[in-house]
Amino acid sequence: MQSSAATTHVAEHAVNVAAPAADVYDLVADAQRWPDVFGPTVHTEVLEETEQHQVLRIWAFANGRVRDWTSRRSLDPSARTVTFRQVVSAPPVASMGGVWRIGETADGCRVTLLHDYRAIGDDPEALRLIETALDTNSTAELGALKTTAERLAQSAQLRFGFSTHRDIDGSPREVFDFLARAESWPSRLPHVARLDLREEEPGVQHMTMDTYGPDGSVHTTSSVRLCFPERGLIVYKQTAPPPVMTGHTGRWLVESVLDDSGAPVVRATSWHTVVLDPDGVRRVLGPSTRLAEARAMVRRSLDANSSATLLRAKQFVE
Q1: At which of 154, 185, 208 does a domain end?
Q2: N or C: which end of the chain has fewer CB within 10 A?
Q3: How far does CA 291 lie from the centroid of its chain?
Q4: Co-location of 163 and 98 in the same domain
Q5: In what order do the strands lie in the sheet with 218-228?
Q6: Burial label, 248 (beta-carbon count in 10 A; 0-12, 13-18, 19+)
Q7: What pLDDT, in 10s, does the model give residues 254-308?
Q8: Which InterPro entries does the record associate with it (predicted)?
Q9: What is the number of structural domains in the chain?
Q10: DSSP state for residue 40 in the 8-state scheme
């Protein structure tokens, strides 16, 4: 990593990917998929969008803590570049920008990630923290991009999503509180054996949870959740997913809607997005297990837990 005599510093990271350049560009350009691809990214929201420009709000880990910032992006699919600049940076960053470049190679493509940044007050300790976070996150992001792109090039069945919902006769806030107060789940949900919850700041929850499988076995997962009570929304990402997955993200949404008869009702919906790990599938479920079978098994398990949670929320509120 190098720095100029002024206060602007630069960093460059790169990786070779055995996948078509166009497909890799699509993964970088589609920010909504970042939580499924990039380990540090927890959640992204598109605030403004045109064909070639976006304004994003991003939540991601930096030096072990979840930070959020707003970035403006320019997308050039013909050149396969995505240029970005933080509109509102999180301290100690004063400003940050850069560019993704995806260039074709004989056996796939080479992805280069460039950053330029400044620290508030040009503070040496702040610069060290930024350097560490940049190096850690960029290395992790490029490694994850390589793994995801190369696996998806082999099979599109690895990534899938689904949802389930339940209508509840109660107030949206009561339903939301049931889902947000996860520390009470062991006494409220039969499939939750243990849950440790730490809230580092309001609305940012870190969870470690033991759940019972259909056969009575106990599985441990770790997640980070972002709670938006004013929107009735909870988004989450498993930071330590089960071994058959490389990624698992989801969200809970509580909203007032009209049911099929036109009557007002509170609807709670659970969404899941899963990326399977083919090596983990063979290791855990057996070498002859097909991806379609693994998809069905994972969906049944996740859907059963979500449906049980929604049913208990309904019973608790009503």
Answers
A1: 154
A2: C
A3: 22
A4: no
A5: 159-168, 264-276, 245-258, 233-240, 218-228, 204-212, 192-201
A6: buried
A7: 999 988 888 899 999 999 999 999 999 999 999 999 999 999 999 999 999 999 9
A8: Polyketide_cyclase/dehydratase, START-like_dom_sf
A9: 2
A10: T
Q: Do 137 and 181 fall within a single domain?
A: no
Strands (E), the chain: 2-3, 9-17, 41-49, 53-62, 65-76, 81-88, 93-105, 108-119, 159-168, 192-201, 204-212, 218-228, 233-240, 245-258, 264-276
Number of C-beta neighbours around residue 19 at 10 A: 21
Domain that holds residue 48: 2-154
Mean pLDDT for all residues in the chain: 94
Q: Which of 154, 179, 195 is where one domain is finished?
A: 154
Burial (CB count within 10 angstroms: exposed 0-12, middle 13-18, buried 19+), residue 225? buried
Which residue bears the tokens 């002024």?
6
Q: Report which residue type is found at 117.
A: Y
Measure the CA–CA gap between 113 and 100, rounded to whole angstroms.
5
